[in-house]
Amino acid sequence: MKTYHLKTEQAIPISIEEAWDFFSSPLNLSKITPDGMQFKITSDYTPETKMYAGMLITYIISPFLGLKMNWMTEITHVKEGEYFVDEQRFGPYALWHHQHHFKTIEGGVLMTDILDYAIPYGAIGRLANAILVEKQVKQIFDYRVGAIERLFGTVI
């Protein structure tokens, strides 16, 4: 199984407490996901719900052509104020391991996302990644950068 890797970093002009409060709430994920994905959390969480190790989050997404898919991730590791990890339990990927790291820097917080993923179906999956998936994953993370800048501003 071929795995793919993406790492992004973004400086955000807010405190580590504000960053953790926002990003550790599953319901805020829809605020930084492209509208075209028709992303909807189907788990029953309130805005006060914060991530914890073992938490399962279910979604419906439409990654392309209006095709709706169910997706389930588990929050496998949490160190409050520093990082959390989500891993796919059911969904479109053969592997999805996404680390979210937060570090205080001058003027705010450095947020680092480290994603390792794999596509099922062998050679067909590798071709799909080359043609569509890799570009789409990158576009999602690029969209997130813009959404976070609109929500919080940029660190100069």
Automatic annotation (TrEMBL):
Which domain of life does the UniProt lineage start with? Bacteria
InterPro entries for the chain: START-like_dom_sf
Q: What is this protein called?
A: Ligand-binding SRPBCC domain-containing protein
Q: Which organism is it from?
A: Mucilaginibacter gotjawali
Lineage of the organism: Bacteria, Pseudomonadati, Bacteroidota, Sphingobacteriia, Sphingobacteriales
